[in-house]
């Protein structure tokens, strides 16, 4: 060992002894706790060091597990405010709570570290007397890193069973007073948890930073050009006339999760659209409501653009480009359209949760075109939105399906407008009950309303399509000839999901066709109206209501198929299912009108898929074309089902091509189901023999579960051959030992850095840090 290494070991041993001295005596040793002022001006030398040296380590070694609501102990290391806030023993994800939990959103639900302490968060940095000795010995962060440095960690192979990587694992979240006992009970729990320790250099840098009191600063402010763009957009969104104010409210309620940017430069800033008590030109004073349509309790809401100061995480990153063309488009849709707004709607929950009432003055065509223009972004909200993981929405959707949309010219007819106006009460969503819901009584009420709406919608459709001539592909939006949002693919990865542009992969089991009313309701159910802190009733009713909406989207697709095949295909999708209330209500919405499409085979669904791809050919995104992977890797798109069954949901493959460059691929495992109508028995509905897998170029998914490195053609060939022969868990582990980058790989962090470098190069503005909370231990 080099001399510097021996010195580091000596320091670690000495400080380990020092830690023992402080057990339960921190107030006596270092005085009472008091929040410190750590965030400094970026021009200060120590703050600059944080940005250049410390933040990159925290991002690449810590934020990959501690970045969102689902981070262990709510510890978010992605921003100075999150680091200063610390940890909480309260879980955000709790599907059993009887009463809603108070929200704990950074920047929104408390403004100072002292306020977070009042909400039960405890520090990970020393908040007692500020000396080098106290800053180290009184820091949970430092002691967590130190514990990892002093404990042996496996070099390859599997980690023992006492490592728990389940998402719902018990969380201790110790305070500094509790940490010595915690370290004795769980000596393996040093940080990074279940991954190799930091290098001696990284550990030394963080140690020196913590020793100095952990000074931090915010990232660089926006450029002058970006500030000019902010001013232009804030001016547009905050005009005084009722028409613009209502339009701005609609825009905000659909874009509030987006990461807005104005250029494609490497160092562009991102912004979020927020509600503020203060007008443009003044500091933003956030309106901190649970939902974007909750009562702001101010006379006038201002819509402002606030810079995103935290690290960009793939799992929450939803980029949206704003420019002059987009501004002109919004003006055409909302300002220049001929309608009047005599009076602005209020914020009573039963009104505000119903977009069909609140925005009734805005033409349906304008609203629908607005959603379609950024359909991928809106759908991403279902998946990446308030929850960081789309848990509630996920066991109600299939693992792989396509999404198309009804053309706005067909969907905004006077008859459709009248239907929505007559039945706006029936379109009320569970968010009207807010976050504490009695599920059974609420469910019965919404079921009755859904039944009445579908009955009216089906009657109107049968009338409009009586001759079959209009019930054809002319109904499907073609993206105005250029917009790739017209065709989407959704992948479910068990407890996470991804949406991308294009019809990706092999032909799916099901497809959704969304019309305006359906698209809008999904957004207000799963995004704008969903409260991750809500009680069990709120979460249950949300999931059950989503059953209705999925079935309606599938029904719209089925109605394009021949009358003779519709029921049989639907029965295949819902094999072995008991007739649920959702299916009972939706069963009558299969149209009696025949399809106007001529079919020529006994497999009309496959024919329809071919016709859809032809109909949308001009706008199909081909970035993830599974047929474009190299010939040597193509067999992974036709793996034996026994091999597929052993795969995790999302595997990232880094394969070196003939030029020596690393090329990224994603191998996605699609779980098949006999049906997805069961809320509590998903395992009982699994059709394991029907599982499929898709290999695509690039990265799909935010949570890699397996990472494979194939450094040359020989490794590629051997990997493909051996994976095709996998039949058992033992076979899979042998494959992983040869080609996988396990949690215990000695160079894990070097491969992690390589993975992120390639992602940054290939994903561009879509780039964000991946999350390792689902990385398997196999």
Automatic annotation (TrEMBL):
Record-given protein name: 9-hexadecenoic acid cis-trans isomerase
Domain of life assignment: Bacteria
Keywords: Isomerase
InterPro entries (alphabetical): Fatty_acid_cis-trans_isomerase
GO molecular function: isomerase activity
Classification via PROSITE patterns: PROKAR_LIPOPROTEIN
Natural source organism: Pseudoalteromonas rubra
């Amino acid at each position: 060992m080099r001399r510097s290494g021996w010195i580091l070991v000596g320091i670690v041993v000495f400080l380990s002894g020092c830690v023992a001295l402080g057990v339960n005596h921190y107030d006596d040793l270092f005085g009472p706790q008091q929040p410190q002022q750590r965030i400094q001006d970026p021009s200060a030398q120590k703050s600059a060091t944080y940005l250049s040296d410390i933040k990159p380590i925290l991002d690449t070694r810590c934020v990959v597990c501690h970045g969102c609501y689902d981070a262990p102990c709510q510890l978010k290391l992605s921003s100075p405010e999150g680091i200063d806030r610390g940890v909480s023993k309260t879980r955000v994800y709790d599907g059993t709570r009887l009463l809603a939990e108070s929200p704990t959103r950074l920047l929104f639900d408390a403004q100072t570290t002292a306020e977070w302490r009042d909400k039960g968060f405890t520090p990970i940095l020393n908040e007692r007397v500020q000396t080098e000795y106290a800053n180290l010995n009184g820091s949970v962060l430092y002691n967590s890193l130190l514990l990892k440095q002093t404990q042996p960690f496996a070099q390859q192979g599997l980690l023992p069973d006492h490592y728990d990587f389940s998402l719902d694992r018990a969380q201790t979240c110790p305070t500094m007073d509790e940490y010595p006992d915690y370290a004795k009970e769980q000596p393996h729990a040093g940080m990074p948890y279940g991954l190799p320790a930091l290098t001696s250099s990284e550990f030394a840098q963080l140690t020196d930073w913590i020793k100095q009191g952990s000074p931090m600063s915010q990232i660089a402010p926006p450029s002058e050009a970006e500030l000019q763009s902010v001013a232009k957009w804030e001016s547009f969104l905050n005009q005084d006339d009722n028409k613009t104010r209502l339009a701005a409210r609609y825009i905000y309620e659909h874009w509030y999760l987006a990461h807005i940017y104005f250029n494609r430069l490497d160092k562009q800033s991102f912004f979020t659209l927020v509600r503020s008590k203060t007008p443009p030109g003044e500091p933003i004073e956030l309106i901190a409501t649970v939902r974007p349509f909750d009562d702001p309790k101010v006379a006038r809401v201002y819509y402002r653009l606030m810079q995103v100061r935290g690290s960009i995480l793939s799992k929450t990153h939803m980029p949206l480009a704003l420019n002059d063309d987009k501004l002109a488009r919004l003006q055409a849709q909302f300002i220049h359209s001929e309608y009047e707004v005599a009076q602005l709607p209020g914020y009573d929950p039963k009104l505000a949760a119903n977009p069909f009432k609140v925005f009734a003055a805005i033409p349906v065509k304008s609203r629908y075109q607005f959603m379609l223009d950024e359909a991928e972004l809106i759908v991403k909200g279902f998946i990446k939105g308030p929850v960081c993981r789309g848990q509630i929405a996920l066991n109600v959707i299939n693992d792989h399906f396509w999404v198309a949309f009804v053309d706005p010219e067909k969907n905004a007819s006077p008859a459709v407008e009248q239907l929505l106006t007559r039945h706006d009460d029936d379109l009320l969503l569970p968010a009207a009950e807010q976050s504490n819901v009695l599920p059974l009584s609420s469910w019965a009420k919404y079921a009755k309303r859904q039944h009445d709406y579908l009955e009216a919608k089906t009657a109107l459709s049968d009338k409009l399509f009586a001759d079959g001539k209009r019930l054809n592909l002319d109904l499907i939006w073609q993206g105005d000839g250029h917009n790739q949002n017209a065709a989407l693919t959704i992948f479910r990865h068990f407890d996470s999901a991804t949406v991308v542009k294009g019809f990706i992969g092999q032909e799916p089991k099901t497809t959704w066709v969304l019309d305006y009313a359906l698209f809008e309701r999904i957004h207000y159910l799963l995004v704008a109206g969903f409260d991750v802190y809500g009680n069990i009733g709120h979460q249950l009713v949300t999931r059950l209501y989503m059953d209705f909406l999925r079935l309606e989207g599938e029904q719209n697709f089925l109605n394009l198929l021949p009358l003779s095949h519709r029921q049989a295909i639907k029965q295949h999708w819902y094999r072995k299912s008991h007739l649920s209330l959702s299916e009972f209500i939706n069963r009558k919405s299969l149209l009696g009108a025949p399809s106007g499409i001529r079919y020529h085979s006994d497999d009309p669904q496959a024919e329809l898929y071919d016709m859809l791809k032809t109909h949308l050919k001009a706008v199909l995104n081909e970035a993830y074309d599974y047929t474009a992977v190299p010939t040597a890797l193509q067999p992974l798109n036709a793996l034996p089902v026994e091999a597929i069954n052993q795969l995790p949901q999302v595997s990232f493959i880094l394969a070196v091509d003939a030029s020596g460059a690393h090329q990224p691929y994603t191998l996605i495992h699609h779980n098949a189901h006999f049906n997805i109508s069961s809320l509590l028995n998903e395992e009982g509905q699994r059709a394991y023999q029907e599982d499929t897998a898709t290999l695509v170029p690039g990265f799909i998914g935010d949570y890699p579960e397996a990472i494979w490195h194939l450094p040359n053609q020989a490794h590629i060939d051997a990997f493909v051959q051996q994976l095709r022969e996998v039949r058992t868990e033992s076979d899979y582990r042998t494959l992983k030992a040869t080609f996988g980058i396990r949690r215990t790989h000695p160079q894990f962090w070097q491969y992690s850095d390589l993975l992120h470098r390639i992602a940054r190069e290939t994903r561009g503005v879509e780039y964000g840090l991946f999350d390792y909370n689902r990385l398997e231990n196999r």
